[in-house]
Amino acid sequence: MNDHTRLRDGHGPRGDPPGLAAATVDNAVYAALDLGTNNCRLLIACPTGDGFRVVDSFSRIIRLGEGISSTGAISEAAMERAIAALSICSDKIRYRKARRLRLIATEACRAAENADHFRARVAAETGIKLEVIDRETEATLAVIGCSPLLDTRGRGAILFDIGGGSTELVRIERDPEAPGASPEIKGWMSIPLGVVSIAEHFGGRDVTQQSYARMVEEVAQYVAPFAAEHGSDLRDMHMLGTSGTVTTLAGVHLNLARYDRRRIDGIWMNDADVSATVARLLGMSYQERIANNCISVERADLVLAGCAILDAIRNAFPMPRLRVADRGLREGMLVEMMREDGVLKAC
Q1: Which of 10, 52, 281, 313 has its CA 20 to 30 A from that of 231?
Q2: For the purposes of burial, counting CB atoms within 10 Å of the CB of 218, is it exposed (0-12), middle (13-18) or buried (19 or more)?
Q3: Considering the entire predicted model, what is its pTM?
Q4: Strand partners, 45
Q5: CATH no. of 148-325
Q6: pLDDT in tens, 234-276
Q7: Is the distance from CB of 171 to CB of 177 less than 8 angstroms?
Q8: Closest of 146, 173, 138 to residue 157, by C-alpha
Q9: What would the CATH number be for the domain defined by 5-133?
């Protein structure tokens, strides 16, 4: 079990023994931070017995992993962007008086040769002490965060999380003899490819049918071993996707004037819907993608790389339905901490 952290007297985090409960704090406030290869996301919430109530949040694309695939290091510019975002997160954590925290970093900090230097700078300049989690932990947290969206009438799902620098795949199933029990992880894998690394390698602005096909082919080679082991008997199962790729895809599918989480989280898309929306995006120019308010300049050069990863997964696991999750690691961290502290019922 990875150690969690607490914020002491508002002056910065320190390590505490695992299992130290925060439930004794009145109106306990929990914070979960996910520093990914592309995004910095924060969620602050209070437990409500059978769930939690969000009291504050933050999300910003910071592209921490920009250039790592070619240089092996986090650039100075990327560090500055990340530290600016993390400073805002630190202020929010202090303002909300959060005492129970988990502050994680994923693929960029796993891969970069100067990750320790970056984390030291973050701690010194923001008071945030980042915990670099492994890929198995990342997959497990995604399952915890997204499992409420499993079809209760089905057997399970192939869950995928398309990140900036890695993509996680998990086969999860319910026990038919224990319908109220948490779903079980039957298998998982992580591939070292995400939207940032794919877009940097193949180009994300001007994507042709040919370059898109090469992206899909590249990802398919990594997905194939997992599909060979876990891709049989997909009866009564569906796909469950969490990432900016699938939420953006859903927003474009619905022709939203602007992104609206309330209309996206939990939406079902059938296979034809996904194919039609991907084809629509492939037919757009880079400027047209920028002009779409569900994509914008922040994702215009990444969204097709994400679609290529999605298509490789869809080809390996052909299923008629995809459920879209605008939730993931942060929610998983909050649920895990609250369960450990006994302030949230296990389900």
Answers
A1: 281
A2: middle
A3: 0.86
A4: 30, 54
A5: 3.30.420.150
A6: 999 999 999 899 999 999 999 999 999 999 999 999 999 999 9
A7: no
A8: 173
A9: 3.30.420.40
